[in-house]
Amino acid sequence: MSAKKSLSFALEPRAALTFDDYVVDCAWSPDAAQFAVAGGEGKVALVSVAPDALSLEVVGEHLLGTLALAWQPHGRRFASAGQDGAVAIWDAANVRELVRFRPGAGAAQALQYAPNGELLAVAAGKVVSLWSPGGEKIHAFAPAASTAVALAFDKPGIDIGVALNGEIAVHRIEKSRYETRRYKWPAPSLTVDFSGNGRFIASGMADGTLHFWNRSTGKDSQMRGYDGKVQLVGWSDSSRYLASCTGNEMVLWDFSGRGPEGTRPIVLSGHTDRVAGFAWQPGGEHLVSGGRDWRLALWRPGKAREPIDVQMTDSEITTVRWSPDGKRVAVGEKQGRLTVFELVAR
Amino acid sequence: MSVIPSRVPVTVLTGFLGSGKTTLLNRILSEKHGKRIAVIENEFGEVGVDSELVIGAEEELFETNNGCICCTVRGDLIRILGQLMKRRDRFDYILIETTGMADPGPVAQTFFLDDELKNQFALDAIVTMVDAKHFEQHVDELNEPAEQVAFADLVLLNKTDLVDDAALARIEGRIRGINGTAKIHRTKNADVAIEKVLNVGAFDLNRALQVDEAFLEPEYPFEWGGVYQLAAGDYQLRTRGEHDHHAHDHDHDHGNGHDHEGHQHADLDIVVLPVAAANAEALAGAIEPAVRQFAEAATVVACHGALDPAPSHCAIDVSHPGADFRLKIAKGGAYALFCEHHPAEFGLQLVGQQAAAERRFASHHHEDDIRSIGISDPRPLDPVKLNQWFDYLLKTRGQDIFRMKGVLNVKGEDRRQVFHGVHMMFDAQPERPWGAAPRVNNLVFIGRGLDRAELEAGFESAVAK
Q1: Which residues contact B204 (CB under 8 A, 6 or more apart)?
Q2: What is the mean pLDDT of residues B200-217?
Q3: Does the pLDDT at position B191 exceed 70?
Q4: How far is B115 from chain A (nearest CA, A)?
Q5: Do A65 and B87 touch (CB under 8 A)?
Q6: Is the pTM higher than 0.90?
Q7: Residues of A in contact with B88 (CB under 8 A)
């Protein structure tokens, strides 16, 4: 018998195929048996995931490119939004387009389902609107002064945050009463994300700052020192870490104890080119990141500042997405390669 | 392993309302040229081609660097071009149309400021369409037309069939007065070969800087000078003939108290003076005496009046078409004629005579005018002092300087240093070696209210000691 040692984790490729488009994003089904894929040239596809094989079916298209993708929580539908300004809702069970609509003038930049799956929020041009899962319009908020580029629901599905130029607008949608609160900062906001515990809303800005607001006090905390635009921001599932990214590095702020103000962040360096995407493990503390350096890196921020595993892919990585059970990662590449990796203990 | 893909050239098309941008876009989109061109347009739907190559934009301005207005970029373009980067079927060219009233600065700056875009796209040229029929009226009433011309690498002077040659000469003179480096193509109905508009490489730092020589000189009180060999006798100086309606149009355009560069158009200041010979050298030698004559009070000469080459400074009345004046030459020899405005503006000519040599000069300007200032000087520059000067210049005058470009002779550097900027943003890089070519600095600044003395003093401060 060998001595007891601590487990180490790694990612192992399980199945792959090539999609005939640039992979913009992937969205897993709740049962982790399928994921939808959005293509840069506009294709929308559905991938079925078997233990050691993937199969893909192209279901439709958005002219000029698909910009966003979301799978309905608890449901069998997913939605896509395009440069053509259209939003399409797809039925994964019967592999068909259910409905297609144009929520406003301008490209549809972002869409998100409410956590209960009963509401779809869409940002098209300057307008954010709410739709039923079947595509009926429920409400449209007054047009903002600038294009809405990102959306996020908070965990209870009461508030929806909208990233705008110069502010984050938070629309309250409880019991069909619509109220808006604004968190202002004079730079284009690129991202928005609520912490899972509901205490903070965070945004990455084009001026190289990361902001988080305490939602009960409204206090704005600004984190500086980024080299360029802060394009990616995401809370860990436990709300302990806020990860952000600029260039090759990921910067993590630790919200345990008194919080990150006045502290130095954890800097994760391992990529040799721009990080294109990262994702926190649902129900866990692992972080995966994929970069233009063709590297897929697995991190365990509390334990190590170096990646605990690195896998090379076939081209530039464009997106990384955990399956809802936190066991697998779908990785998309610029050349269309789609690979499912499994998190394994060694 | 992987090949670095070449950057996709981007053309920015500006022009006042009605100048013909849409006609040009439709022409480009419908012509069979075998190129894939993506058009990003603001007035969506205006271009009549239902094509996946036409993308609507919102003209959304983002201020960066704490609200400095000359660090404004186009957020919508960052998003749209980011989206185009995800296409594997690459476009050969991208054409961005701005609205008629738009300042092309933010579009150009977007390509300097955004690292992602800088790696994928190369700003090729700013093309400004000018409506020949209405340009003079618009440029007097509004700021935008002159600013759009100031930004241009290429000016398409359109609707040339709707005005006469004199007006075209006048408009070109005015365009040149604003922008000393832009190429000008005359077009009718926006009909221009596509290769003259796309991929012209104006921002290519490897291309030689082409500057109208006149902008490297100080300003003079005259725009034109010519020398003639004249035998003793009477000569006639006259403007374009009676049956030409140009003068009426002109009155109509400028009649209501409107001045052209602060001068009533009715009088044209001229100086005639004897020179040593009828050649370019003698003309150059006559510049200084002519400047002195222009400083003297002018004698007003009515139509049909006589001019005396004493020398003397005269203001001739050219308000009528076909106005004529007698020039009495008592002693045969070489004579120089200097005119406040280019004679082509009035169709002014010394009847039956051809100038043996002639030259254009940069004309005088008002403080708030947009114009070009060039500096040409062979002395090597100190790189540290040069940086200090540029830093200071961009900090203090970045908003006023629309464009700057140049080729520099930097001390200790065997290669030409070239730079190119839009407002406060600029790129600089070493280019090919000087080799046997004479080393010389050539810089051009295009902007509002630029002060030649200030720029020259700044340049002087950067000269290596």
Answers
A1: B122, B124
A2: 67
A3: yes
A4: 9
A5: yes
A6: no
A7: 21-22, 40-41, 335
